[in-house]
Design goal:
This protein is of the alpha/beta class. It contains 6 helices and 11 strands. It has a single domain, classed as Rossmann fold (3-Layer(aba) Sandwich). It starts with a strand and ends in a 14-residue tail after the last strand.
Length: about 230
């Protein structure tokens, strides 16, 4: 889907997922990045506090930096500051990565939490993902062993960032009911083109293949080199 405002469209989609769910809980894996930050800011606005059934949401994070929650690089910390601290979402339904543990142990603990909360084959109702200029998504970078891991969560070393990251694996994302990629801006133009036009490119983003095809929400700059805009059926 190519739109003028990625954030507005993403929020409308999320609202639709909640509406479809009725009274049942909705499990969501969140993403880092600039586009989700704008979405979080809107969700934390005063007029949103009474509009959403917050008690239905169960939140996880698709990836994280191994830093404390108050660190500026923390995905959870950014969501907490802009959104979660402003709304009546029960803390027992919020599951940040246990970054106080060593990375490998943090991945093990997070996988255990996933199976405890969502079952032995954890299925998310909704997953938000972005795409980096080299085709990474979550913290799944080109060449990462985590791309083919049997585990639910991993702590791969990312050479291009010279650091360890924490990430869910394609195994988890591919179990999800709905995966949505968000991309906007001229700097995403070439990788979006490659993701669609070069199916055998081996990009990490192409490893995300749930039973229901992923949805893409793109602005016109990101979609400029697509021969035809992908649209939802």
């Amino acid at each position: 889907m190519v739109v003028d405002d990625v954030t507005t469209t993403a929020l409308a989609l999320w609202t639709g997922v909640l509406r479809e769910a009725g009274d049942r809980r909705v499990s969501v894996a969140l993403s880092g990045g600039s586009t989700p930050l704008e979405m979080f800011s809107r969700l934390g606005a005063p007029d949103m506090r009474s509009q959403w059934p917050w008690e239905q949401l169960v939140l996880f994070w698709g990836d994280e930096r191994p830093v404390p929650p108050d660190h500026p690089d923390s995905n959870y910390g950014a969501a907490r500051e802009r959104w979660l601290a402003q709304v009546p979402l029960p803390t027992r339904q919020i599951y940040p990565w246990p970054t106080q543990a060593a990375p490998e142990e943090a991945a093990r603990q997070y996988a255990a939490t996933l199976t405890t909360v969502l079952g032995p084959e954890p299925v998310f109702d909704l997953v938000w993902l972005g795409v980096g200029p080299e085709g990474h998504t979550a913290s799944l970078f080109p060449g990462s062993a985590a791309l083919s891991a049997d585990a639910l969560a991993a702590a791969p070393f990312v050479a291009v960032k010279d650091t360890v990251r924490l990430t869910l694996t394609p195994r988890v994302f591919n179990l999800s009911r709905r995966v949505v990629f968000l991309a906007r801006g001229e700097d995403k133009r070439e990788i979006v083109r490659r993701a669609f036009a070069e199916p055998d490119a081996g990009l990490p983003v192409q490893s995300i293949q749930p039973a229901a095809d992923p949805w893409w929400i793109l602005d016109r700059a990101a979609a400029a080199d697509l021969p035809a805009f992908p649209r939802f059926e």
